[in-house]
Structure formats: C-alpha cells, structure tokens
C-alpha cells in the first residue's frame, strides 16, 4: 500500500491564501524544497549546493517582495512579520554556511527536510494568511470611491 499523505515539502491546499502572487511564490518555495530533499538522498554535493542556492534566491526574493508590499500597504503587523523573516533568515544563513563547510550533516539535513518546511508552513498559516486577508480587504470593490477617482466622470 502506498502512503499518500503529503510530506513536509508538499504544497497543499491548506496553504493556499487566494492571493495569486503569494501563492505562486510559496508554491515555488515548496517545489525548491522538494528538489533539495530529493538531492539529500545521495545526490552530488555540488548539485545539492546549487539547489539550496536556488532555494535561497527564491526565498530572499519572496521575503523582500512581501516586506515591500507590507510597507506599501502600511500593513499594521509589518514590524512583527518582518522580525519573523529576519530571525528565520539568520538561521537559514547559518545552516547554509554549515552546508558549505561540512556538507549535508545530520543537522543540515534536518533543517532542509524538516525545519525549513515546518517553518514555512507555520509562517504561511500564522503570518501570511492574515496579511493576505488584509490585502483582500483593501481591494477596490465595485462602486468603491477608489475606483471612481479620476475616471473622467463629473458629479456636477
């Protein structure tokens, strides 16, 4: 019998925020984590390091994009959200340095297979979901004054 439960690197429905950009970026991050996890099963070390570098690039781009959007929209929880990013990035960079120096040690493997996916799942549900809801509330609705502003119609 095949076990069909999702693994920690699987992108699953409960992580969908109904925000196209955030969902696309999150799906890419989970795909990168899956590729990294597969390489931990005996893939060549240079290939593993390239896969982790690609994950790091996409992760940093995603966090920067999210932080810029939080500033642009004056998200009330942006300081706390950014702090969560900063703490995670510090740990991620430490793991990456160990990977470069010592290879895929048991702690590095745990980080890549368990801790990063768990952090990302937690972060999406606890930090990003409220941010996505905030963004959804800010979308102009039909008849919203923000839509009518400058549409060329005169009220008088």
TrEMBL record:
Belongs to the hemerythrin family. Residues 20-128 form the Hemerythrin-like domain. The lineage of its organism: Bacteria, Pseudomonadati, Myxococcota, Myxococcia, Myxococcales. It comes from Anaeromyxobacter oryzae. SUPFAM superfamilies: Hemerythrin-like. Signal peptide: none annotated. It comes from the Bacteria. Keywords: Iron, Metal-binding. PANTHER family: BACTERIOHEMERYTHRIN (PTHR37164:SF1). Pfam families: Hemerythrin. InterPro entries: Hemerythrin, Hemerythrin-like, Hemerythrin-like_sf, Hemerythrin_metal-bd. This is Hemerythrin-like domain-containing protein.
